[in-house]
Amino acid sequence: QVQLVESAGGLVQPGGSLRLSCAASGNIIRINGMGWYRQAPGNQRELVATITSVGSTNYADSVKGRFTISRDDAKNTLYLQMYSLKPEDTAVYYCNLNIVGAGGYKNYWGQGTQVTVSS
User: What is the spatial distance between Cα 81 and Cα 60, in angstroms, rounded to a whole number?
Assistant: First the structure.
């Protein structure tokens, strides 16, 4: 079994910053690709950023230059550093990890954390 625990989000003023983390524990041999997704009310879940096992990154156009995704494989943890936050960044943020365990590989989702950008 694998568990993912996301850090708390919060209420941030426009222009502010926030860092999210997603820690994996349990039956883990290695973690392949990782990513952050978000879902705003009434919208579909959308990709925010991804990072491969070798550190290659990809970002949605809406967050390029403002968000940075990173990973610490020694801690089995994924991060999302968010700067210059805008009201349109308000959403529930989910991490997604492709984890290889004893039984093979599987995609896991975090529980989601609310980020609200408002004055």
Answer: 14
Q: Among candidates 90, 96, 81, 80, which has minimal Cα distance to 116?
A: 90
Give pLDDT tens digits for 51-79.
Answer: 999 999 999 999 999 999 999 999 999 99
18 confidence band (pLDDT: 50, 70, 90): very high
Nearest Cα to 21, choosing from 81, 64, 61?
81
Residue 112 φ/ψ region, left for φ over 0, alpha for ψ in the -120 to 50 degree band, beta for the rest: left
Return the pLDDT at 1. 87
Strands 2-6 and 104-109: unpaired
**Taking all residues of the chain, what is their mean pLDDT, rounded to a whole number?**
97
- The dihedral over CA atoms of 17, 35, 57, 89, expressed in degrees to the nearest 10, equals -30
